[in-house]
Amino acid sequence: MATTAFGCDLFARLRDKSGNLFFSPLSIETALAMTSGGARGQTLAEIHARDEESAAEAAKQYLQGHDPEDALVSPLKGDLSNYPPTLILASADECLVGDALAFQAALTEARRAVETHIVPAMTHVWPVIAPALPESQAALAAIGNFVRPG
Question: Apex CA 56: angle with CA 50 and CA 58, to 5°?
């Protein structure tokens, strides 16, 4: 998350410069995500601090003033008894994996059909960021199989 915010912040600062600008926030995010994987000590502490800031800002933007306990904000807060079959894809290393597993557990408890894939060592939305990876191809195949069973 911090890497996304950094890329967007950098873009906001660079876009006001005169002349042509070739810039890829996605490339910046990918490079910083790889860097954070090997970070230690003060560098890692600074990355985590930025993650918390980014998470708070992302939550504010997502909620748009709504109560986080509202079922329209989080299906975990609502009645799942009539929830449709659900496919959950998450990385074992992303900040939302706990939410993904909690949602799976709630759907299972409600006796709803749920298929979950937790993939190690990927970043958030990895099939979009790196579609050529074998893990991305497997995720896209799982999506295809889910929407076109049989």
Answer: 100
pTM: 0.65
Q: What angle do CA 13, 45, 40 make, to 5 degrees?
A: 110
In angstroms, rounded to a whole number, what is the distance separating the alpha carbons of residues 45 and 55? 15
Q: For the chain, what's the residue count?
A: 150
Nearest Cα residue to 100 out of 110, 109, 111, 89: 89
DSSP 7: H
Residues 87-141 have pLDDT tens digits of 999 998 887 889 999 999 999 999 999 999 999 988 888 898 888 899 999 999 9
Give me the numbers of helices (H) and strands (E) for the chain, helices first please: 6, 2
Q: What are phi and psi of 40, to 5 degrees?
A: -140, 165
Residue 115 in contact with residue 87, Cβ under 8 Å? Answer: yes
